[in-house]
Amino acid sequence: MKKSIIGYILAVTLVLSGCSSDSTIKTQLSATITKMNNAEQAYKDAQAELTELEKSEQELFNQTMELTQQQLGELKIKVAELEELLGQRLTHIEGEEKSISKASKSVDELDAIIEQTDGAVEKSIEELKEAVTNRYELHSAFVVEYKKLTSLQEELYGMLVAEEVELKELKDKVGEVNEQNELVHTAVISFNDATVKVNVLKDDTFSNLQKEE
Question: How far is CA 120 from CA 16, 29, 132, 201, 207, in A?
Answer without folding.
Answer: 20, 15, 18, 12, 10
